[in-house]
Amino acid sequence: MAAHMLSLRKEVRHDTDIDRRRAHHELAARQAPLAILAVVLIADAIDLMDSTIMNIAAPTIQREIGGGEGLIKWLGASYALALGILLVVGGRLGDRFGRRRLFLIGIAGFGVASVLCAVAIDPAFLIAARLLQGAFGALLIPQGIGILIATFSREQFPTAASMFGPVLGGASIVGPILAGFLVGANIGGLTWRPMFLINIVLCAAGLIAGWKLLPPDRDLQKVSIDGLGSALLAVGMLGVLFGLIQGSTNGWTAVPVICLGLGVAGFIGFALRQRLATNPLIVPALFHNRGFTSGLLIGLGYFAVVNGFAYVVSLYFQMHLGLSPVGAALAMMPMMVGIIIASFVARPLIPKLGRNLVVAGLATTLAGIVALIAISIAAGDATNQWMLAPAILVLGLGMGASFSSIYDVAVGDLTTDLAGSASGSLSAVQQLASAIGSAVVTTIYFQTSAAADANRPFIASLVVVGAITAVCLIAAPLLPKRAPQDAH
User: Fold this and answer.
1) pLDDT at position 8, please?
2) Hey, CA dihedral for 39, 44, 45, 51, is it positive or negative?
3) 207 in Cβ contact with 106 (< 8 Å)
4) Are 61 and 71 contacting, i.e. CB atoms less than 8 angstroms apart?
5) Distances (CA, A) of 486 to 121, 293, 347
6) Predicted confidence band of residue 298 (pLDDT cuts 50, 70, 90)
7) How far apart are CA 274 and CA 283, in angstroms?
8) pTM for the full model?
């Protein structure tokens, strides 16, 4: 009897253990998608924060390690340059070698590159480390959507994707403010370096969580990667940016002129390569679509100038108005708040309003620029951040509406088989536009900084930003009338 009761108790305990394990696995199965989403969001937030921190930290870095205007220009361009050149390639590598594998390599490499940024002792080393950061970011970022598509059902995916807006919107505000506070706190006498060292903690957490949570790689594809096309694009971008920055900083000697020539030749070679390559980075058929081509050109011009403006306004706040890094970050908050508000409002309206939403976003951006010019001219040397705040908010509202709509509308007339390639190409162009814009607009700012009117560099930069935004607005009717119905 005792033996029977002991056996019965063992069976009950065994059944209870099975039930507990089953319940645990069921709970883990329900929680895993949310945890995977969190890992992907952390990676994207790290990328966005590191792409914006230079807006605040560049003047302090330049004062500490030298490099003059050239360093400030490269700090704004280098990260986006590497990210843009390699972004499409990173997505193809994920298809070929596994998204999980590339995600883990990307986040680990990003952490290592962040350490190199933190220990940089001269401008060349820091710029090289920023390029390396961008390269690993290009391995990391494209894998996220593919991982989420494999994790969530078709019904669940829109809900998961909707989390990117608030998280990345928050990161766009937190990044510059955190950078300002870290620089201002001067922890251990390290001034700007802790803003890179904090990436070690974030990347380590992402790496450990990704290793444990991300689904294993399956159904790997034998994707052909156009290495020659990527190399020609790199030559084109590096040649143009190096020539522009070097010439505007140290004079138009033979070196920058030759670099500009090599850059143009690189772009021509890249265009020819896309027509001949079996698996081009940008499918030539896309350029037969007027909506895509106009969207690409509008996006190239618009994203270039507004990203350049975000960089220049921080320089203006710190180098002319005398604000601290924290003060500059807080003074830029109206723009970030405007972007977030407009993004939330505009996103559900894209399928209904389509091209009209792009027009509204561009027109609002232009109104903000015109207001900033008018205030700066009227107030002169008495201009301060409080006067500019309402116009900067309006500008942010226009940016948020445009960011949310330009590329979604641009693919409105494309067939499903081309939409994926178009989206990847447009994302890469957006990063390359950021690199070009930060170099061009800061060049204009510094070229006019010797003027007697202290506000002139800021006004000159605004005029260029406004003029290109106006051209984009004029070209907006070339876009498709409607975005794809699943764009929201």
Assistant:
1) 34
2) positive
3) no
4) yes
5) 49, 21, 11
6) very high
7) 7
8) 0.82
Q: 216 exposed, middle or buried (CB, 10 Å; 0-12, 13-18, 19+)?
A: exposed
Give the pLDDT confidence score for residue 264 in this predicted structure.
Answer: 92
Per-residue tokens: 311: 């960089």
Residue among 469, 456, 315 nearest 406 (CA): 469
pLDDT tens-digit series, residues 421-464: 677 777 778 778 888 888 888 888 888 876 657 788 899 999 99
Q: In terms of Cα–Cα distance, which of 91, 90, 421, 430 is closest to 285?
A: 421
Placement of tokens 């561009």 in the chain:
362
Task: Write the CB contacts of 103 (distance below 8 Å, at least 6 apart in sequence).
Answer: 43, 94, 139, 140, 143, 144, 147, 210, 214
Nearest CA among 310, 255, 247 for reference residue 437? 310
Backbone angles phi, psi at 236, to 5 degrees: -60, -50
CA distance 205 to 39: 9
How far, in Å, CA of 349 to CA of 259, rounded? Answer: 44
Contact 107, 210 (CB under 8 A): yes
Q: Are 438 and 311 in contact (CB under 8 A)?
A: yes
Percent of the chain with pLDDT over 70: 87
Torsion of CA 112, 117, 118, 123, to 10 degrees: 160
How many Cα atoms occupy the beta-carbon half-sphere of 44 within 13 Å?
Answer: 21
pLDDT at 107: 95
From CA 390, how far away is CA 3, in angstroms rounded? 83
Let me know: does 106 contact 147? Beta carbons within 8 Å: no
| Distance, CA of 229 to CA of 267 (rounded, Å) | 10
Residue 169 pLDDT more than 70? no
Query: Would you say 429 and 300 are in contact if contact means Cβ atoms under 8 Å apart?
Result: yes
- Please write the tens of the pLDDT for every residue from 13-42: 444 444 454 444 344 445 578 888 888 888
Element (H, E) at 474: helix 456-475
* Terminal Cα-to-Cα distance of the chain (whole angstroms): 68
State how far the alpha carbon of 339 is from the alpha carbons of 27, 170, 274, 342, 470, in Å.
Answer: 37, 10, 35, 5, 19
User: What stretch of H or E contains 265?
Assistant: helix 254-276
Secondary structure (3-state) at 252:
coil
Residue 437: how many CA atoms within 13 Å on its side-chain side? 28
Using alpha carbons, select from 366, 352, 392 the residue that is nearest to residue 476. Answer: 366
- Cα separation, 49 vs 405, in Å, equals 22
